[in-house]
Write a structure and sequence with these properties.
Layout (H helix, E strand, L loop, with lengths): L12 E5 L7 E5 L3 E8 L4 E8 H13 L17 H4 L10 H28 L8
Antiparallel strand pairs: 1-2, 3-4
Length: 132
């Protein structure tokens, strides 16, 4: 990839160094570029793009103002698969020990409630509305 902003088109330009002695030497002016991962609504994929700092500020401004979806980077479309999901590198949510205990307790309570419902059906000989 060249040193060029995908949004504004800023690229490396050339000029002169002018020190106190006024001896002219050539130099380059490079744009302030960053690699960013951005959702592309046209393809439905997350893409890595080089953007200048001014382009990032422009995107933030468009999002604040509520610009049309074609111009603004939006949240991923439901059902769209990101690059990390394709590579099976999805970060899993980590639970604290307290959250793990609560989750186990909820699962046990749900299992107990299900067995209680089945026992009640067997004893009375009636089926619940959920089974229908």
């Amino acid at each position: 990839m060249a040193r060029k902003c995908a949004l504004t088109g800023k690229k490396t330009s050339s000029g002169n160094n002018r020190p106190f002695s006024l001896k002219i030497t050539k130099r380059t002016f490079r744009p302030n570029l960053f690699k960013k991962r951005i959702f592309n609504p046209l393809t439905g994929r997350v893409e890595r793009v080089k953007l200048s700092a001014s382009a990032l500020r422009t995107l933030k401004k468009w999002i604040r103002e509520g610009a049309p979806e074609e111009e603004v980077v939006a949240a991923p479309v439901p059902g769209a698969i990101s690059h990390n999901e394709e590579k099976h590198r999805v970060k899993k949510d980590k639970l604290t020990p307290k959250q793990k205990k609560e989750l186990v307790a909820q699962q046990e309570a749900a299992a107990k409630a299900a067995t209680d419902d089945k026992n009640a059906e067997v004893m009375t000989g009636e089926t619940s509305e959920k089974a229908k």
